[in-house]
Design goal:
Number of domains: 1
Structural class: alpha/beta
Distance between the termini: 53 Å
CATH superfamily: Alpha/Beta hydrolase fold, catalytic domain
Number of helices: 11
Largest sheet: 6 strands, mixed
CATH topology: Rossmann fold
CATH class: Alpha Beta
Strand order of the largest sheet: 1-3-2-4-5-6
Helix content: 40-55%
């Protein structure tokens, strides 16, 4: 799709076109929408699943300035894309950068986000260790060694075992690394320079009012579990998995029949309201 701004945006779609829309967004750096398809597969009979390639990723348009890859620019693209699909509001979510972009949209365009799921989405500046990692690996991109950078990034984010499994599928490995070849050296450097130059915007998340589920991985390095807990703490009423487990535990407690009787006698429950 070519947006009114002239930006070309690619996306994938699955599920039931008549069901509620879920925008599910990939992580940053070397990822694209193809990484996200399996996540929503169990839900496809009940949702319209939309998987965008944000600008600079996959088959979407590339830019050669870091300022063209900020969350406001990426968010504007996705809002115009949803306009083009005739979708006013949707559930947003994703992993890493996709989770953070969902947080950003809910904070800055609340009328467009019905609910959000952020899996390790960081509204934080990258820690010094991440910035140092980029400084060490930036020469790979500058030299056009995109495959070597891809390997280093997957090794860092997902581990050697995941990289080995991916390389054991040569067609898939060639597919995902081939998309990086659509970048010029300048455009991939710009994308990654912006990634590692981001600033802390946790305070913006206090504006979020939609239902929010914040998920962290026990072995996450950035954001850490503690960082994700801070995100959940700043959003009014945000849900964490522990909340769901606690609610289920409360539902297992037996409520005395006398309490239901008393509530009906006091007019706090309708007399014909069903009770256990």
């Amino acid at each position: 799709m070519t947006l009114p701004t002239g930006v070309r945006l690619h996306w994938r779609e699955a599920g039931d076109p008549g069901s509620p829309a879920v925008v599910w967004i990939h992580g940053g750096s070397v990822e694209d929408s193809s990484f996200m398809l399996p996540d929503l597969e169990p839900f496809l009979p009940r949702i319209r699943a939309l998987f965008p390639d944000t600008r600079g990723h996959g088959l979407s348009q590339k830019f050669e300035r870091a300022e063209d890859y900020t969350y406001p620019e990426k968010g504007r693209d996705l809002l115009l894309w949803l306009d083009g699909l005739g979708i006013g509001a949707a559930v947003w979510g994703g992993a890493s950068m996709g989770g953070a972009l969902s947080l950003w949209a809910a904070a800055h365009h609340p009328e467009r986000v019905l609910a959000l799921v952020s899996i390790s989405g960081p509204p934080f500046a990258p820690p010094e260790s991440e910035q140092q990692w980029w400084s060490r690996h930036r020469p790979l991109v500058a030299a056009g060694r995109f495959d070597d950078f891809f390997d280093a990034n997957i090794r860092l984010r997902m581990g050697e075992e995941v990289l080995a499994r991916l390389k054991a599928r040569p067609d898939r490995y060639a597919e995902v690394t081939g998309r990086l070849e659509r970048h010029s050296v300048a455009s991939l450097l710009a994308l990654l320079d912006e990634t590692y130059a981001r600033t802390d915007w946790l305070a913006d998340c206090a504006r979020i009012r939609c239902p929010a589920l914040i998920i962290a991985g026990a072995e996450d390095q950035f954001p850490t579990v503690e960082m994700s807990a801070r995100v959940a703490a700043v959003i009014p009423g945000a849900f964490k998995p522990e909340h769901v487990r606690a609610n289920l535990e409360l539902m297992r407690h037996e409520i005395p029949a006398a309490l239901w009787h008393e509530l009906k006698q006091e007019g706090l429950l309708r007399k014909d309201a069903p009770t256990p």
